[in-house]
What we know:
Elements: E1 8-11, E2 26-27, H1 29-33, E3 38-41, E4 44-45, E5 48-49, H2 52-63, E6 77-81, H3 87-99, E7 106-110, H4 111-118, E8 124-129, E9 134-140, E10 143-144, E11 150-152, H5 156-169, H6 177-190, H7 197-202, E12 208-211, E13 217-220, H8 223-226, H9 244-253, H10 260-265, E14 267-270
Helix pairs in contact: 5-6
Organism: Oryzias sinensis (Chinese medaka)
Pfam family, one: Actin
GO cellular component, one term: cytoskeleton
Amino acid sequence: KYCFPNYVGRPKHVRVMAGALEGDLFIGPKAEEHRGLLSVRYPMEHGIVKDWNDMERIWQYVYSKEQLQTFSEEHPVLLTEAPLNPSKNREKAAEIFFETFNVPALFISMQAVLSLYATGRTTGVVLDSGDGVTHVVPIYEGFAIPHSIMRVDIAGRDVSRYLRLLLRKEGYNFNTSAEFEVVRTVKERACYLSLNPQKDETLETEKAQYVLPDGSTLNIGPARFRAPELLFRPDLIGEESSGIHEVLAYAIQKSDMDLRRTLFSTIVLCGG
């Protein structure tokens, strides 16, 4: 099992010394380690692949000696995707796996269905919020209910961008793509969801300290709970979509009346 961020890094400076960092493209741990020297790009945006060349390079890296150390021709592939993705996205992925990697078999499944299976259930409603997209999928006896699926293109990366804006207002600037990854780490380690954000706004919030890679200390105040509040209030960044709590309730209400009690009693939160 291997887990690494889904981005690629390219050097943003000209190499001037022999023996300097070798390579024009970095993926996985090397991209994380040297991100200060790199321009970091995500091949996916809101659950949809925007740069197929970089996406293919990431898949090649997965099969390489640095990761699985195996041949793609020997193993069937299970690929997950968000619901309501364009069919062209699925077709292009299948084309690459069959024509470039020569895999013997490929199955593309909805993330939410597999997440529900992982909990040992076949009926329930899954709220899946990842880095690029949030979706709600009611599932009955292993089958997603198509007309009840809801999708919101606001997720973890949007929270990171909003946190960067809030930190800028507090005097901390994170401008480069590498520094944005620092903001993402700060979000994961310091942010939390407030049960009563209006009340917390009026209180003296205890500041959290985070040591940045350069050794300086970042003191985070109300931004700790203001940033994740974006998931419930997209209007904070000018989006007109509903919050995830409203989307969840609406998806269940769109399901058959006989299923609603069961769905309300079995809500699975997942993503990452």
